[in-house]
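Support request, please re-run this one:
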Amino acid sequence: MAEADRLSDALRYALRPETEAAGMIETEAGWLAEAFYTEEPDLTDLRAIVVRTLGEGGADRRIDCIALADRNWVRESLEAMPPVDAGRFVVYGHHDRDRVPGNAIGIEIDAGLAFGTGHHGTTRGCLMALDRLLKQRRFRRPLDIGCGTGVLAVAAAKALKCPVLATDIDPVAVRITRENAAKNGAHGLVRAVVADGVGEVSIAAGGPYDLVLANILAGPLIRLAPSVRPLVAPGGVVILSGLLTHQRRAVEAAWRVRGFVPLFRIVLDGWMALALRRA
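Re-run finished. Output below.
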């Protein structure tokens, strides 16, 4: 199961999330990692991903490519997933509206063209970190960098009842964030804009931020540290995710040298969410 889980994650991040999906299932022969493509994939590329994830033993693993009927596999695969609990937050699809506890903050996110349904350890870790921080203090000016479906921005807006700026390099993700904000009754609080990094004028104008959420990948988290630092108010908190546990030291170091102090870490399925405070 562990190998299939790692391979499923590797395939998911190697794909284009707007058209493809990855997951794993249990069969009589063991655990099977699956990926769904809109076009026939290159077997050499697939083999390279398997070897990179599983080591040299992956060179002998069986890879089958099978043509499937024309169906919305992304939606069907995500609709089969149950609601996700992350502290006070519950992320669910429209088909599970009746399964949300009355005392929870429900966030309805259906399968779409952007990453972030709450099922992955990175998103759930961010939500759990946010829930933990909200028990300690109140934030009034959050920023969500790389918003994807907008799940984190919507969570912050619903919990804090304050405006949230959400950004993404992908215009499709920005559109979906706006749609999900409206679906969750937060359209008046979540403002989503297209931005590559944090250099847009609208981002600087909205600062300084007392809470920054960034669920992306380790490399961008390291590169963004210098430019995000001036946007964070003294005492402000950043929640960083999208990094594997072995990448934690490099990411933390990039933020430590810019005056951020680690508060706590959350590890889920080999992925880590970091909470740091600007001293």
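The mean pLDDT is 86. The longest helix spans residues 121-134.
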